[in-house]
Hints:
This protein has a domain at 4-38. 52% of the residues lie in helices and 0% in strands. The protein has three helices and no strands. The longest helix is centred in the middle third of the chain and has 11 residues, at 15-25. 0% of the residues are buried. The mean pLDDT is 84.
Amino acid sequence: MNDVTTLLNALRRPRLLIRAARFGLNDYNRNRDLKRVMRTSTAPSPSRPCPR
């Protein structure tokens, strides 16, 4: 059985998706954006997994 990191690294991502991610990276603010998306008062730590 493969671990999640290996599976993610094996994904083939479309070139347009990669370009869009790089373009949006300049405006991304983890604390601001995660609080809004997750509707919480504080952003979770990077080591905490997302709830399902």
